[in-house]
Amino acid sequence: MVMLSDNQGKAPEQLVISRSTEINGSLFTDTIVRQDCALHVRGSVTGSLTVERGAEVVVDGSVCGKIINRGGRLVVLHKGLTAYVALDGPPETEAGAVLKINLTAIAFNWERLARSTHAECAAVLQCNGYGCGIDSVAGALAKSGCRTFFVTNLSEARGVRAAAPSSVIYVLHGFCAGTGRAFAEVDVRPVINSAIELAAWDAFKSTDGWAGGCGLNVDTGDNRLGLSVEEAAALASRLDSLNHGIALLMSSLADIEEADDSRRERQIALFRELRGLYGGVPASLANSAAILLNPGCHFDVVRAGSALFGINPTPGSSNPMLPVVELHARIVQVRDVTLGENLDYSQGGFVKRRRRVAFVSFGYGDGILRSSKNSLRAVVGGCRCPTLERHSLDLLPIDVTDLPDARAARIGEMVTLIGSSVSIDEVAEATKSTGREVLTSLGSRFHRIYYAT
C-alpha cells in the first residue's frame, strides 16, 4: 500500500504505477497507471491521470486534472468523504491537547473487513463511536457503503440516524418500558436481552401499532447480556406467527484474550443449532477478530467494532488495520530536576539523577491510564522519550534529557502520545489495559480534528 498526502514533503513530478496499488489518501501529482495494473485511490486525484490499456483505476473522490484513457477502465465514485475537515471541542490555541481522527482510515478499515466476508459487514459504534464521535464516524462509514449499525443506547441511535438516514440501527442495551415512542420516532430496533424486555416490546407494539422489528440476543458463553440458550430455543415457536418481529438473531463471542479455542468453538456450535431453529431470520455472531480469523462463523451479518479505529483485532500478529487517531499534547514547562526532588506525588518517590523534564498538559484526567512500569513513551522532536512515574490529574512528565536537540522540547511545542510511532496497542500494553480502554477513555477537553484525504 502507498500512503500519500499534501503534507508529507515535496511530491514527485510524476508517479508511475507499475503494480497493483492502493493509495490511502489523495494524489497531488500527475499519475500514469501502466498496462494491466490496478490502482485504487481512497481520495481525489488533482493532477493528470493516464490510464494505459488493460489498466483498472478506481478513484473514491474526484479527478480534477486531465484524463488520458488509452484503453483501460476508470471508475470515479465522487464520494463525499474525500477532502473533508471538521473541527470540534475548544479552539486549538486554548486546548492542552489535539486529537486527530482520520475518517479515510476508518472507511478503509471497514472496507478491509467487508472484503474478508460474504456476509453483510455492520459497524459497532458503541461508547460514542469508541470515543471518536459517533456522528462523524457514522457519516463516513455510510458514505463508504455501511448499511447497518449497532449502538449502545437511543441517544447514540439519534446521532447515527442524523448521519446515516437510510441505515438500519440496533440498540444493544435493549428496550425499557416508556421508550417505545422514541424507538418508533427514530426508527431503530432494540436488541432484546431478556423475556421481560420482549414482553414490554410486544406490549408497546400491540398498543401503538408499531411494526418495527427487533434483534434477539442470546448468551452462548460470553456471560454478558442476553437470553439463555434455553429461553431462545423456547421462543423459536414465535416464528410460526405472522409479524413475529424478529429481524436478527445474534450472540457475541467471548473476547479473544479471555477465551480459548474450545470455548469459542462451543459458542459457534450452540449458535449454529439455534440458527437452525430460527430459519429465515438473519444471524450474526462474528466480531472483528472472527471476521479475519474464523469464516465459519460469519453467518449473515458480521459486526466490525474496535478494529475500525485501528486497534489490532488479531493480537500476536501484525495489525492489518490502518491507524486512525493521533493524540498530541502541549508542553507547558521544561526544567531541570535535581537529585532529591519529588516527582511521584502519590508514593513519595524521588529522582535518582539529574534530568531534563518536559511537563505536558495531559494527565490521567484526560484518559490514558498510569504506567506502572514506566514503559509509556512519548515522541518529542521525532525521538521516543520515556514518561516518568507518575503523571498527575492533568500533567504528564516526560524525560527529555537525552534529546539530540534540546530545542525540540520547548514551551508550546506539541508532543505525540498516540500516532504512527506510538500505536494505541503499544499504549495499552504499557498501561496494562486494552486498545478499547485507551481509545474510549480519551477525554472531552481536546481540540478535535476530523479529516479525510
User: What is the top-level CATH class of the largest domain?
Assistant: Alpha Beta
Helix content: 10-25%
Structural class: alpha/beta
Label the overall shape.
globular
Determine the N-to-C terminus distance: 15 Å
Here the CATH topology of the largest domain equals: TIM Barrel
Radius of gyration: 25 Å
> What strand line-up does the widest sheet have?
17-16-15-14-13-12-11-18
- What portion of residues belong to β-strands? 25-35%
Name the poorly predicted regions: 1-11
Short description:
With about 450 residues, the protein is of the alpha/beta class.
Structure description:
This protein has 11 helices and 25 strands. The chain is α/β, with parallel strands linked by helices and 453 residues long. The protein folds into 3 domains: 63 residues, no CATH class; 194 residues, TIM Barrel; 128 residues, Beta Barrel (Lyase, Ornithine Decarboxylase, Chain A, domain 1), CATH 2.40.37. The strands form 5 sheets. Strands 17-16-15-14-13-12-11-18 form an 8-stranded parallel beta sheet. Helix 6 links the parallel strand 14 and strand 15. The chain is globular, with a radius of gyration of 25 Å. The two termini are 15 Å apart. The N terminus is likely disordered.
